[in-house]
Design brief:
Cycloisomerase_2; 6-phosphogluconolactonase activity; 1 helix; mainly beta; signal; N2O_reductase_N; five-stranded antiparallel β-sheet; 29 strands; about 375 residues; Methylamine Dehydrogenase, Chain H
Length: about 375
């Protein structure tokens, strides 16, 4: 019986899993789809996801059949149906929002939210029962200027993170070095307070949540990557009956570089967390136009540890300017978008050990694309 189980396991391992990737560039290139065979490691361009329409700046995929894209130049967010091949079909009408660079969706899909790096605005748009945006958008604009010497001069929200309870939204503000905290309502969100970054100027850009319920005996924590000083801050999320507060874990942020290189010598961009909640990955964009970027891997320590993260490796990203990346649902494959190389690199990753391969198993080059990408795996 044991021999039969082993044989079955070996036979199962020979079957390929085909991953569908949707890649959205900036407005200079069209959104397209690709497929990756995890046995042969073949990565191929399979066509335009949105024929005849320039790609959006960011894409959110809350389910296998629904996508939302931002279009920065047109100042709109739009909904799409997703086919198994990765093709996108528009549903409903685009909704006007201030110059969006990011889009996300609440856990119950009651509304979507966008962040506007250029204009300092945050917008929410209700969704109907079919997931179609209902105009008009509700907008908050932060008009304060940055009081510190910094490459930024004003409020620049860059993304949004929904907490594990689905009750709160946190928007990292790259310009003001703040986290804007909102309370989620039925169809929009209400501003609660600002939490300053621990070290300023830092440039908080993107974030992810770890701990409960993936690691059931750990409290939820918010990890935020800082663009300007290449670091990751970790905040313990403390809940009371009517509020959620953020408490910094440890006395300092953790560098995403092997040797801290000073402000804007290299700029961190994206954060991911492994599906099992054990590891955190951050991308580093080199400031030189065509120099290769890197991916830093951190082990996530318990909430009681003095340091929230321990960096265990830094690996080349396989190209220049890795703004965005994505792990598949099994934690086995990492896709990295290298914007200045117009390439997509695929790396193997072991989410049990945190081992990220030092060389890509595939690198799709010569595809149309811009500086900002996002991926989705089927």
């Amino acid at each position: 019986m044991l021999q039969s189980l082993v044989l079955l396991s070996l036979l199962g391992a020979s079957f390929a899993t085909i991953h569908t990737l949707i890649i959205s560039g900036d407005s200079s290139g069209g959104a397209f789809s690709a497929r990756f065979d995890d046995v042969t490691h073949e990565l191929t361009h399979t066509g335009m996801s949105i024929p005849g329409v320039n790609g959006g700046n960011w894409i959110a995929l809350p389910s296998i059949s629904t996508a939302y894209l931002t279009f920065r130049n047109a100042s709109v967010v739009a909904a799409y149906d997703v086919s198994p091949s990765g093709a996108l079909t528009a549903v409903g009408s685009p909704v006007v929002v201030p110059v969006p660079v990011y889009v996300g969706v609440t856990h119950n899909s009651s509304f979507l939210f966008t962040a506007s790096y250029p204009s300092g605005a945050i917008a929410t748009v209700p969704l109907d029962q079919n997931g179609i945006p209902i105009p008009p958008a509700s907008t908050t604009t932060f008009t304060a200027t940055d009081p510190l010497p910094s490459p930024q001069d004003q409020s620049r929200p860059h993304s949004g993170i929904v907490d594990v309870s689905g009750q709160y939204l946190i928007f990292p503000d790259d310009g003001l070095d703040l986290l804007h905290v909102y309370k989620i309502g039925a169809t929009s969100a209400t501003f609660l307070y600002d939490e300053p970054s621990y070290v300023r100027p830092a440039g908080p850009r993107h974030g992810v949540v770890s701990g409960y319920p993936v690691v059931r005996d750990w409290v939820p924590r918010l990890h935020v990557v800082n663009e300007e000083d290449n670091s990751v801050e970790t905040w313990i999320m403390h809940y009371s009956p009517n509020n959620m507060s953020l408490i910094m874990q440890g006395s300092s942020a953790v560098s995403t570089l092997a040797v801290p290189a000073g402000m804007n010598v290299s700029t961190a961009a994206e954060l991911l967390i492994s599906p099992n909640g054990k590891y955190l990955l951050a991308s580093n964009r080199d400031a030189s136009l065509f120099a290769e970027g890197s991916i830093a891997v951190f082990r996530i320590n318990p909430p009681t540890a003095e340091t929230a993260l321990t960096r265990i490796s830094i690996t080349t990203s396989g190209g220049a300017n890795p703004r965005s990346m994505s792990l598949d649902r099994t934690g086995k494959w990492l896709a990295v978008a290298n914007g200045n190389s117009n390439s997509t690199a695929m790396f193997s990753f072991d989410q049990e050990t945190g081992l990220l391969a030092r060389t890509a198993v595939a690198n799709l080059t010569g595809v149309r694309g811009g500086l900002i990408f996002h991926y989705y795996f089927r």
